[in-house]
Write a structure and sequence with these properties.
The protein is of the alpha+beta class. It has one domain: Nucleotidyltransferase, domain 5 (2-Layer Sandwich), CATH 3.30.420. Helices cover 34% and strands 19% of the residues. It has 3 helices and 4 strands. The protein has a 4-stranded mixed β-sheet, with helices on both faces. A hairpin with a 4-residue loop joins β2 and β3 (51-57). The protein is globular and about 55 Å long. The relative contact order is 0.20.
Length: 120
């Protein structure tokens, strides 16, 4: 009997497939998203140097408790990542949804980042 993969294992497989196509360069770094049940994290990464340029998460000080697990919290993270990236001179990014479906918190974060000035 073939066993179905656990949901997170399937997501990781999908993410690897996406990563074959999406590479972060110095001109256009990769905007990576990770979400857990209670929090959401976003990083702008330059894959050629292997370093994180900008990072935002819902576990940072000053972020409302429990706001990372909902769409409103994801919107705030999207706005913050765009502000910090623009402050560092990053305007264009390659969006990496991390293997998650593009809806809910992922879509809210992406839309808020676009509205705040990031291009992808």
């Amino acid at each position: 009997m073939i066993q179905k993969p656990v949901r997170n294992e399937a997501r990781k497989r999908i993410h690897l497939r996406i990563r074959k196509k999406v590479q972060g360069t110095p001109e256009r770094p990769r905007l990576n998203i990770y979400r857990s049940l209670q929090h959401i994290y976003a990083q702008v990464i330059d894959d050629t140097r292997g370093c994180t340029l900008v990072a935002v998460s819902s576990v940072e000080k000053g972020f409302p408790q429990g706001a990372g697990g909902n769409v409103a919290g994801a919107r705030e993270i999207g706005k913050l990542i765009a502000q910090r990236a623009l402050a560092k001179g990053i305007q264009k990014v390659a969006f990496d949804r991390g293997g998650y479906r593009y809806h809910g918190r992922i879509k809210a974060l992406a839309d808020a980042a676009r509205e705040s000035g990031l291009q992808f």
